[in-house]
Amino acid sequence: MSPPAPHLVDEILEEIFLRLPTPQALARTACASPSFRRIVTQRSFLRRFRKLHPPPLLGFVTAGEGGFAPDQEPHPSAPIARALADAADFTYSFVPDLSADGGSFTAWSPCDIRDGRVLLESPPRFLRTYASTFSTTLLAVCDPLSRRYVLLPHIPVDLYQQGNREKRLYHFQHRLAPTGEDDEDETSFRVICWVHFKDKMVVIVFSSASGQWSVAATPSWSSLGLVNLSWRGPKNRFKNSCGCFYWTDRWKGDMIVMDTRTMEFSTANILDSDHMQVMNLPEQSKCTSAVVVPTEGAFERFTVVYSPNGSFHLYHTTQQSNDGSCQLKVVVPLPRGSRYYTVCATDGFVFLQGIPDQAQSGDLIIRISRDLHQLLDLFSLEVKTSQLKKVCGPAPVSKCLHSYFGFPPSMSKPSL
């Protein structure tokens, strides 16, 4: 009997490798032989594998010292996280530093991360207005693993001012846009900027394919049914893996949803009163923080609740978007010995920060930015399973904290 054709052998091996239980197992397979590595590093195979096995959480990218807080034991991704920390450059030394020697720009700082790419910003040192800061802020997209980067061009003023230079810019944000599932070119990326004016929002998109910025949408607040917004407009609370971005009004329950695939906007309302009634908290208990995760046809809210006996619990409630009904799904007890706060939610996880009791003091707020960065722990809760895991700690305190999901370095291809 003649041996099977080489392409049939590859197809059989590919189907076997797709059934490996974890990315860690696939990484070990890739190291077993050159032929195995050739199969598992093909883009078509990686695309199929990622649909079946979402990339593991490896840690957090921060603006603090070191730039990356990897998973620590006993977290199952700790070995891969250590390998990533050793192989990647989260100081971004490979990106031209325009702040060196007293330059007119500040050092690069991460403002978003997606698919292993980091969006960096370098605002000017001396400009004081939002409009001047926005129009001159430098942006770059980089891959700390392959040490490749792309410097983005400045955003033309007329593009976001729409020809009217008298309009006051109240707020702006930069984010990496989700890539489409059917996007064959994995080296391409998009950056989205939202510019908030008093009467509307202007959405500007940079495409690496064209190398240019363009206006994608200009919805007015009135067209979305929103009135009397706070002066800086809605605030971006979280991002979601389903290809949408979300904002909430600072003082109301209004939520704005933007679908990055169609650039269409919609609104929803989060009912705080119903949420509190479902929780049925005793009067002496109090909420320390909360985060909302939109899902298919509902809003999942995660609220940290503190009780007088010193215990903390995470309440998971769901609100149906069609009728507004609110139900309690599960209450997750949090480990004793720390004070907890929600940090953010993304890619099916809710992240919490724990401050150990020994760090509590009357001058905590004053000291936290100076000498308590060694005392903080970071936790993840998987939304589907309600499984709580300690990711790392002590971890640095930073206003900029972004979860890093990815594959082992041996499987990573240059992303830019």
Describe this structure as you would to a colleague:
It is a single chain. This protein has two domains: 44 residues, no CATH class; 358 residues, Neuraminidase. Helices cover 18% and strands 38% of the residues. The protein is built from nine helices and 23 strands. The strands form six sheets. A four-stranded antiparallel sheet has the order 3-4-5-6, with no helix packed on it. Strands 7-8-9-10 form a four-stranded antiparallel sheet. A four-stranded antiparallel sheet has the order 11-12-13-14, with no helix packed on it. A hairpin with a 4-residue loop joins strand 13 and strand 14. The longest helix has 13 residues. It is globular. The relative contact order is 0.13.
Mean pLDDT: 79
- Residues in β-strands, percent: 35-45%
Category from helices, strands and their pairing: alpha+beta
How many structural domains? 2
Distance between the termini: 46 Å
Number of helices: 9
Globally, the shape reads: globular
The largest sheet has its strands arranged as 3-4-5-6
Largest sheet: 4 strands, antiparallel
Look at the structure and give the CATH class of the largest domain: Mainly Beta
Assigned CATH architecture of the largest domain: 6 Propeller
Rg, nearest Å: 23 Å
What is the number of beta strands? 23
Helix content: 10-25%
Oligomer: single chain
- CATH third-level topology of the largest domain: Neuraminidase
Low-confidence stretches: 362-373, 409-415
Pfam family, one: F-box
Organism: Brachypodium distachyon (Purple false brome)
Protein name: F-box domain-containing protein
Domain F-box: 8-49
